[in-house]
Design brief:
Elements lengths: L3 H21 L3 H26 L3 H31 L13
Helix pairs in contact: 1-2, 2-3
Length: 100
């Protein structure tokens, strides 16, 4: 049987990989995927504690987080596609559409 500590260790590793992806990479799609990885690591933590405590509150909260993540994915990809059509790149350093 897998212990809660192992779930938390996996979640921490996933979150750190996501943070490194956001801070290091300059591709908007990779950054977007890293943010999704961080959200999934938080979901894993919530489910692990929910199962450990025998309470379904964490599992219900995961459904709300997944709903927000799905909406964020749809809006984020639409923004990335729109920026690609304007600038012909998804490199974050080259996208300076808000600068004067």
């Amino acid at each position: 049987m897998i212990s809660v500590e192992q779930y938390l260790a996996l979640s921490a590793v996933m979150f750190v990989i996501g943070v490194v992806g956001v801070l290091v990479r300059r591709n908007a799609i990779i950054v977007f995927m890293s943010i999704e990885l961080m959200l999934n690591s938080v979901n894993l933590t919530l489910v692990a504690f929910s199962a450990y405590l025998g309470d379904v509150t964490g599992q219900m909260l995961v459904f709300f987080v997944m709903t927000v993540a799905a909406a964020e994915a749809a809006v984020g990809l639409a923004i990335i596609i729109a920026l690609y059509r304007i600038r012909q790149t998804v490199n974050i350093d080259d996208i300076n559409i808000l600068k004067w």
